[in-house]
Design brief:
Layout (H helix, E strand, L loop, with lengths): L2 H15 L5 H11 L4 H5 L1 E4 L2 E4 L9 H25 L5 E6 L5 H9 L3 E7 L2 H13 L7 E7 L2 E2 L10 E6 L4 E2 L8 H6 L6 E2 L5 H9 L4 E10 L5 H10 L3 E7 L5 E7 L1
Parallel strand pairs: 3-4, 3-7, 4-5, 7-10, 8-9
Antiparallel strand pairs: 1-2, 5-6, 10-12, 11-12
Helix pairs in contact: 1-2, 4-5
């Protein structure tokens, strides 16, 4: 038997059924055999100590995203230490989680940075509902967050941002080139949301729009974190340089692949 498939079966049995092979467990094995991702079958994943419900079928959080989110948390907490030394007061840190999906990035910030506030931006009504579920599931107080349905920075339905500018903007946009769609695993193509994964212009269409609008939403001393495809670092470097951004630092993920970049205005 395939080792990976056996691990997935064991995971389902342990997480959903406490080791008891019930009739429902057998039904879940049929779902697994059909190619449905194991995370959807179980219904949640862990992300930096947060339980991320996946009942609305958002993009499944990736280890690479968890990796850089852990780094931004460390960066914010380091900044908090420095600022507290100077001001003697722990000032609020305003963050934007844009292209939010399940809300995993912003939720991890709220869970691990006590003075943080997060605005979640997501285009899909369904995924906005998912974000709300996850915030409630993890016990986040309502005064610490806002969920805005928007097309990048343009609200849909009239809701406006309660925070005008942010200290950190965290972006995991769709970035996989449409031309590569048929090369991905069928469990991704058949089950995960296309709108969270694929876009035109060599995967750069949404990133270009984001970069053209982001400056007016960042505090002068703020920082942007952007995830991208491993093939895009040189093109994105060109976009950032042409766009006049500063302090551009490209970083590798835990697999030693170019995966995210930080920059300022």
């Amino acid at each position: 038997m395939n080792i990976r498939r056996q691990k997935e079966k064991d995971w389902i049995l342990r997480e959903k059924y406490n080791g008891l092979a019930t009739t429902s467990f057998e039904a879940d094995l049929k779902r697994l055999a059909s190619g449905e991702p194991v995370a959807y079958i179980i219904g949640f994943v862990d992300f930096l100590g947060c339980k991320i419900d996946l009942s609305e079928k958002p993009l499944i959080p990736r280890p690479e995203t968890e990796y850089w989110t852990e780094h931004v948390i460390a960066e914010i907490n380091k900044r908090n230490t420095i600022m507290t030394t100077v001001t003697k007061v722990l000032l609020p840190v305003n963050c934007l989680d844009i292209f939010s999906g399940s809300g995993c990035v912003g939720l991890a910030i709220l869970k691990n940075v006590p003075n943080s506030k997060v605005v979640f931006v997501e285009k899909s009504t369904r995924f906005c509902r998912q974000i709300e579920k996850n915030l409630e599931l993890n016990g986040i107080a309502k005064e610490r967050y806002q969920i805005v349905r928007a097309n990048i920075f343009r609200p849909i339905g009239g809701e406006t941002f309660t925070i005008d500018k942010f200290d950190y903007i965290l972006a995991n946009p769709p970035y996989i080139p449409l031309e590569r769609k048929d090369k991905l695993d069928k469990s991704v193509i058949d089950w995960e949301p296309d709108e969270a994964l694929f876009t035109k212009d060599d995967g750069l269409l949404i990133i270009k729009r984001f970069l053209s609008e982001v400056k007016e939403h960042l505090n002068q001393d703020g920082q942007i974190w952007l995830e991208f495809d491993i093939s895009q670092n040189l093109k994105i470097k060109g976009l950032l340089t042409k766009g006049g951004f500063t302090d551009i630092v490209f970083r590798k993920d835990q697999y030693s692949r170019w995966r995210f970049v930080t920059f300022k205005i």
